[in-house]
C-alpha cells in the first residue's frame, strides 16, 4: 500500500533540492526515498520542473528578474501557511510550462517579425509646398525609431493632403511598429484598396500585423491577396506563409 504525501513532505522536498537541509537531515531524507517510492517520484518530478525552468531561462535577459520574482513567491508560500504546499508544487510545474512557452515562442515570433518587419521610411520625393519639410521630418523620426513623432508629422501632412498615399502608407507602418495594429490596418487597407504602388506591400504588412497577434487565418488570407506579379513582395509573402 502506498504512502500518501503530505504538505510537510513537499516542504522537505523543496528544502532538499534547494540545499537547505543539514547533513543529518539530508541523510535521513535520502533514506526515506529508498523505501518510499512516492516520495522518490515526487522529488524526481520536482527536480525536473526546476531543471526545465533553469534551461528555459538560460542566457535569457529576463532570467534574473524572473528568478527574483519566483524566489519572492516561494517565500510568500512559506509564510502563508493557509496555502497547501501540494498546490504550490503543482502550480510550480504549471508556471514552468507557461514560462517555457513564453520564452521560446516569443523570441521566435519576434525574430520572424524582425526578419520581415519594416526597415525604414524611404526619403520622400521632391513634392513642393508645406508638406516637404514635414515628410522629411517624419522620415528622420521614423528611421530613428521615433514612430509617434513620425505619426504626428504624417498626421499634419494628411490633414492638408488627405489622399497622400505615401503619407498614409508610412503612417500605417509607424502604427504597426508602435503595435497599434487596428490603426495600422485602417491606413494600410486604404492603400490596398487604392491604386498606389504600395498596394501589395500594404497587404503584406496587414498580414504581418495579424501574424504578430498570432491570428494565423487572417494572416494567411492577406498573404493570399499578393500575386506572383508582385515580385519581391510575393517572395516575402511566401516565406512568411512558411512560418505559419
In a few lines, what is going on in this structure?
With 244 residues, the protein is an all-alpha fold. It has helices spanning 7-17, 23-35, 37-57, 63-79, 85-116, 131-143, 147-160, 165-177, 181-192, 199-212, 216-223, 232-242.
CATH fold naming of the largest domain: Serine Threonine Protein Phosphatase 5, Tetratricopeptide repeat
Biggest sheet details: none
**Count of DSSP E strands?**
0
Indicate the low-confidence ranges by residue numbers: 77-83, 101-106, 126-131
Could you name the key traits of this structure?
244 residues; mainly alpha; Serine Threonine Protein Phosphatase 5, Tetratricopeptide repeat; 2 domains; elongated
Structural commentary:
It is a single chain. This protein has 244 residues and is mainly alpha-helical. The chain folds into 2 domains: 102 residues, no CATH class; 126 residues, Serine Threonine Protein Phosphatase 5, Tetratricopeptide repeat. It is built from 12 helices and no strands. Helix 9 runs antiparallel to helix 10. The protein is elongated and about 80 Å long. The protein starts with 6 loop residues before the first helix and ends with a helix. About 8% of the residues have low confidence.
Task: Draw up the topology in text.
Blueprint: H1 7-17, H2 23-35, H3 37-57, H4 63-79, H5 85-116, H6 131-143, H7 147-160, H8 165-177, H9 181-192, H10 199-212, H11 216-223, H12 232-242
Helix pairs in contact: 1-3, 2-3, 3-5, 6-7, 7-8, 8-9, 9-10, 10-11, 10-12
